Amino acid sequence: MKTFAGLRVHEIVQTYSDTLIRIAVQQTKIMSEAEDIVQEVYLTLMRQKKTFENETHLKAWLIKVTFNKCNDYFKSSRVRKTLPITEEMTFTAKEEQNVLPEIFELDQKERVIVYLHYYEGYTTAEIADILDMNVNTVGSKLRRGRMKLKTFLEEGSKVR
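Given the sequence above, the corresponding structure tokens read:
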């Protein structure tokens, strides 16, 4: 049985599926597409010949591949107009649900950065590494996203 960072594939699926699905849903806004994307991520992992230093490295790789697969999804011909988020996202906590719809209104890059920072707990340097961006760019997009969210929450107006 193949292992990565000391974990078997079924352990990786159990450990990281919720995180990867949340990221893919956050990007695509469609649960079924998110599930397909995560399945593609795991298939990519199975074909992977590289070794991972530790679980942190593995998790960062899985998240990066998930974002790349989401970008591929938007480039593909199978993209439909996105549907509004529905009750399909019952796996998020109540406090997350209060702000999550507003996060979906952010520009894609801001949305990704805000999500990784607040929901997955990554630092700006780690996000920059995952997304292949400059740390200062990540910081400015995070600040911009925060300001938009603050305005929306205070005034109840649209984020954009």
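Helices lie at 9-28, 31-47, 55-75, 94-104, 108-118, 124-131, 135-155. Try to locate this feature in the token string yourself.
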